[in-house]
Amino acid sequence: MALTLCVIGASGFLGSHVVAQALAKGHKVRAVMRNPDDVTKTSWLMKLYKAEGNLTFHAGDLDQLGSFDEAIKGSEAVVVCAFPETPSEPKLIETVRGGALHILKSCTDHGVKTIVLTSSGGSTNPKEGEPPVKNEMDHWSDPDYQISQGKYSPAAKTLMDQAALQYGKDHPELRVVVLNPNLIMGPMFQPDLPAKGSLNMLLSILKRERLDKIPNGSMSIIDVRDLAALELAAVENPHAAGRYFGVLRSFHWKEIMEAIHEVHPEFEVPPVGYEGDDVRPTQFDHSRKESLGVKLRDLKTILHDAINDLKARKLL
Ligand SMILES: *[C@@H]1O[C@H](CO)[C@@H](O)[C@H](O)[C@H]1NC(C)=O
Ligand SMILES: *[C@@H]1O[C@H](CO)[C@@H](O)[C@H](O)[C@H]1NC(C)=O
């Protein structure tokens, strides 16, 4: 069923994948960004398959109540990929939580039926430490504790999830879905590699500019194309509501480094930087995520395709 879909943060890493997949599926897309008159943000989106006649650009600013009205009016569903991961500063809390509430109000004012918000796994980490198996319904971060630790970015996501789910309870005519990813990897549509981001981080690991020793840590990863597919599946599934992990699973850094070496043998696995037991990667209850029916790429495919993108850009 073809929909009119509003994608907020459309010129970003994830947002542009949501736009591309939505167009390919035959949806009409209203792409929202801070400055839609900036052709460096729109010209490459206009080259996507089926963009001509199906993609329009609109302005919106998280800090401005009502600024999304024009873009959202006439949309059946809204996907939000606009919340900054960095920098972590106190002001971010109002931008993220307040921005989500601005968008939610525009949705109910204009009869939108569905909203999917991209949050972070940083809102699902109990203060008491990791449970044996983490699930989206029971496990919440403590925002006051996060703020006391200076972790404003994950605190903002925790407060955003709470506010968005409460808004959904108060407005049952709007179906509210939240996706909680951690590290998002994969090929990019953007013509230029941003100064920060996961491909940049991968590039610095490959060049041995960071993680010259394997740390005792783990990382939860998903391919950007699969996260976009999960978000569109949540739009299209009338029963989807509430939080969903946006992760393939969590991997120890040893496993990640070995997978990089397998897909890119020029990369030598760095030495292990500690002696003793390995941290246990976070264990997730995958059932809600799997109910969305998206087959996720495995770790080697994710790394292979991300590394190929760096090679195609002649950065490697
Ligand atoms: C716009 O989308 C419709 C529906 O998928 C499609 O038939 C049409 O070819 C698209 N326009 C272009 C220029 O691809
Ligand atoms: C690795 O991390 C885990 C979990 O924090 C800890 O139990 C283990 O002792 C650590 N190993 C080393 C060698 O520090």
UniProtKB/TrEMBL annotation:
Source organism's superkingdom? Eukaryota
Q: Where is the composition biased (Basic and acidic residues)?
A: 127-140
**Known InterPro entries for this protein?**
Epimerase_deHydtase, NAD(P)-bd_dom_sf, NAD(P)_dehydrat-like
Q: Where is the NAD-dependent epimerase/dehydratase domain?
A: 6-240
| Region feature (Disordered) | 118-140
Give a yes or no for keyword ATP-binding in this entry. Answer: no
Any signal peptide, and if so, which residues? Answer: 1-20
User: Sorted alphabetically, which Pfam families does this protein's record hold?
Assistant: Epimerase
Residues folding into a coiled coil are none
Q: What GO terms are given for molecular function?
A: oxidoreductase activity, acting on the CH-OH group of donors, NAD or NADP as acceptor
List keywords of the entry alphabetically: Oxidoreductase, Signal
Q: Which PANTHER family match?
A: NAD DEPENDENT EPIMERASE/DEHYDRATASE, STEROL-4-ALPHA-CARBOXYLATE 3-DEHYDROGENASE, DECARBOXYLATING
Task: Please state which protein family the record places this protein in.
Answer: Belongs to the NAD(P)-dependent epimerase/dehydratase family. Dihydroflavonol-4-reductase subfamily.
Q: What is this protein called?
A: NAD-dependent epimerase/dehydratase domain-containing protein
Please tell me the species this chain comes from.
Tigriopus californicus
